[in-house]
Amino acid sequence: MAAFPNNTLRSFKPLSPNSSTVRNSVLARNSVSQVPSSTGAVSVKEKRSFPGKPEADVVVIGSGIGGLCCSGLLARYQQDVLVLESHDLPGGAAHSFDIKGFKFDSGPSLFSGFQSKGPQANPLGQVLDALGETIPCASYDSWMVYLPEGEFLSRIGPTEFYKDLEKYASANAVREWKKLLDAILPLSAAAMALPPLSIRGDLGVLSTAAARYAPSLLKSFVQMGPQGALGATKLLRPFSEIIDSLELKDPFIRNWVDLLAFLLAGVKSNGILSAEMIYMFAEWYKPGCCLEYPLHGSGAIVDALVRGLKKFGGRISLGSHVEKIVVENGRATGVKLRSGQFIRAKKAVVSNASMWDTLNLLPKEVVPKSYLDRTKTTPQCESFMHLHLGFDAEDVRKDLGIHHIIVNDWDRGVDADQNVVLISVPSVLSPDLAPPGKHVLHAYLPGTEPFDLWKGFDRKSSAYKELKAERSEVMWRAVERAVGPGFSREKCEVKLVGSPLTHQRFLRRNRGTYGPAIQAGKDSFPGHSTSIPQLYCCGDSTFPGIGVPAVAASGAIVANSLVSVSQHSELLDAIGI
Questions:
Q1: Domain 53-95+119-135+295-378+518-576 belongs to what architecture?
Q2: For the Amine oxidase domain, which residue ranges apply (predicted)?
Q3: CATH 3.50.50.60-classified regions of the chain
Q4: Whole-angstrom distance, CA of residue 71 vs CA of residue 350
Q5: What does DSSP assign to residue 294?
Q6: Distance CA 548, CA 566 (A)
Q7: For residues 350 and 299, what is the distance between their CA atoms, to the nearest angstrom?
Q8: Rounded to whole angstroms, how far apart are CA atoms 384 and 474?
Q9: Which contiguous run of DSSP H or E holds residue 559?
């Protein structure tokens, strides 16, 4: 089933990608040599060369989802844009890699909203629509959960979860869940009335967002009535405040909501914006909803974004490690590569790196104290443990589903280390990800592995290998539980264990972090412009925060901010929002 139908771009007048005057695109590896690593992946050694002209209107550091959304839209806006990626593969935390014919996702694998259209569509879907790209998806509606109360197949939709609550929780849990849905689903119209793609970082937002969507926002408030409109005032407050205002006390309901919040944004319900949770509830618990997995893996999303970038003349250079951001006369004017090559940015530099990694790219003498203090005092989410496996499908359960969530102990909290394990077996829905008759599996601890446990270890030491074996055991046990008694560790054809050091090394993430641990109501994610003129940031260190839809929106906001209001408005018209 195809997601993001390739709509004809109405009203938008810039040159089509087939025009002979569109710039030639470049997808180049920067003369890199690939060296096998201890994990079976490759490391990159950069040589002193750079493909194409060493300048662009906008230079984007990093090819994560946020950076690719930003650069693709900038190319669509006819800006000369160049993406510089340190790795030899694009995609950042969403990249895919191949070992012995097994194609692994390195990061996100739980997606929804790809096939929705219009103002309420997934921001990533809106970007792909603007780029004229489509992604075939497999649709499904359930995942397996393994909880202290029992294990069951949890289905999304408005009614199915009630059956699980009746069996594994209580009649009171059923009543409270209904009370919660009745209260928040009407708020989804307000939460989704302002498309993230309409937002920009200047006063032009009054035209592209406020004036454009005021009628629909007002209509949603009228339809909700006084009580609903009052509830909508809590959209930018922690979701726990809505839970508390409804006097929901059932332990299962509160634990389940904490789990959903943590999976979405890396914080529990007392730290996530209500708007984010309500958007998710609208996607998962309304009639006709479904989950979607991109055929050919999450790398298909990255491939589509790169195609869109190239289609409109954008360039991406792999194996191009940015050593520092160059600041001249107080303004960001380009970047210096590890090779020593200077790349000039005539209009802006956009960093898709984390806030901490961006800070490390800046000359210390140009960083304002306020910028330094904000970055250094922002708390971090912890890191990850990963387990990538390739194995024979013959001896495992035949009804194996794609997603499995294991919670070992509610009392410890969903954010406790070694407590929650997520498992994805995408070859169930996309068999081409593994050789015939095989499965590919990714298990991970979602942003709960303490980096300090690993700090200072030599990756080649026996002590490091012993710690990896010890800390990965919880994932192995979870896999054995999910895949069934026929599964054998010894028979796995591919076994890769990744630690926070792996995460830090391959993704260039400070301390291997999941992102900022910013709690709604106590602080807010930074905006996209910085105190250094012509330097912008996108990705999970900026508004709206962590997660694929959020980082896609952040990239779009930066791109919109770098073009005129008229260009921005024409694009919104073109994609029908």
A1: 3-Layer(bba) Sandwich (3.50)
A2: 65-560
A3: 53-95+119-135+295-378+518-576
A4: 9
A5: E
A6: 27
A7: 23
A8: 13
A9: helix 548-561
